[in-house]
């Protein structure tokens, strides 16, 4: 098992925490991480784009002119795709872009990303993330006290309302709970901050 110091909110170590190698010492599988990112983003697409086909366009019920002896081409409706203002042929329609992605592969991608964070020294375990009042400056001071430079993902279990409200106005910080941890957030934020409770929950859920 890997040992990682648990620090307080001032960044001082208070004790050591054993992290299971099955979760935090997994080999890097970049292809699985890529597939997990593609699946996550595909599931998040709205898919609400739409164009009107000839059955959706208003009008065109009457034949514009008779079939023969006019010297013009034959037409049955002014809403044909050949006409200006007519329907669109094979245009986009509302659809769901999500596709099935195995749970074992999704968890494997999370294990690879967590292991990479630990190996790079960008994983911090704190005893707790307690904020007395929902103030953005208090959270900014807390993040600076932990020695974090750049973006940070704060993971707690559960996330307190004060922490959630305080992180909302910081563009470089996001607060989430361990059960909502996803591969895109792990790759987007530089430093991952786990509470002891969140680290235990993550290790429990991601055990192969």
Task: Please give a quick description of this structure.
Helix content is 33%, strand content 15%. It has 208 residues and is of the alpha/beta class. The chain has 2 domains: 149 residues, Ribosomal protein L4/L1 (Ribosomal Protein L4, Chain: A); 44 residues, no CATH class.
CATH class of the largest domain: Alpha Beta
The sequence of SSEs as H and E is: EEHHHEHEHEHEH
Please estimate the helix content: 25-40%
Low-confidence regions:
none
CATH architecture of the largest domain: 3-Layer(aba) Sandwich
Provide an overview of this structure.
With 208 residues, the chain is α/β, with parallel strands linked by helices. It folds into two domains: 2-46 and 102-205, Ribosomal Protein L4, Chain: A (3-Layer(aba) Sandwich), CATH 3.40.1370.10; 50-93, no CATH class. The chain is built from seven helices and six strands, in the order E-E-H-H-H-E-H-E-H-E-H-E-H. It has helices at 21-24, 30-44, 103-119, 136-145, 161-167, 183-188, 196-205; strands spanning 2-7, 13-19, 123-126, 152-156, 173-177, 191-195. Helix 2 crosses helix 3 (103-119) and helix 4 packs across helix 5. It is elongated. The two termini are 15 Å apart.
Blueprint (SSEs and pairs):
Layout: E1 2-7, E2 13-19, H1 21-24, H2 30-44, H3 103-119, E3 123-126, H4 136-145, E4 152-156, H5 161-167, E5 173-177, H6 183-188, E6 191-195, H7 196-205
Parallel strand pairs: 1-3, 3-6, 4-5, 4-6
Antiparallel strand pairs: 1-2
Helix pairs in contact: 2-3, 4-5
């Amino acid at each position: 098992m890997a040992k990682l110091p648990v620090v307080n909110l001032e960044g001082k170590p208070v004790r050591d925490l054993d992290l299971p190698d099955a979760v935090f010492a997994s080999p890097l599988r970049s292809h699985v991480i890529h597939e997990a990112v593609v699946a996550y983003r595909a599931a998040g697409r709205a898919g609400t784009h739409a164009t009107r086909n000839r059955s959706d366009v208003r009008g065109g019920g009457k034949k514009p002119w008779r079939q023969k002896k006019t010297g013009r081409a034959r037409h049955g409706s002014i809403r044909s795709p050949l006409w200006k203002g007519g329907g669109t042929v094979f245009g986009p329609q509302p659809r769901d872009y999500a596709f099935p992605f195995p749970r074992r592969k999704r968890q494997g991608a999370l294990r690879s990303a967590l292991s990479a964070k630990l190996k790079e020294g960008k994983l911090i375990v704190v005893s707790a993330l307690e904020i007395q009042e929902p103030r953005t400056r208090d959270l900014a001071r807390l993040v600076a006290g932990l020695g974090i430079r750049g973006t940070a993902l704060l993971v707690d279990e559960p996330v307190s309302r004060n922490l959630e409200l305080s992180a909302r106005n910081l563009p470089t910080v996001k607060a989430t709970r361990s059960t909502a941890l996803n591969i895109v957030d792990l790759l987007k934020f530089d430093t991952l901050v786990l509470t002891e409770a969140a680290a235990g929950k993550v290790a429990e859920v991601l055990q192969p």
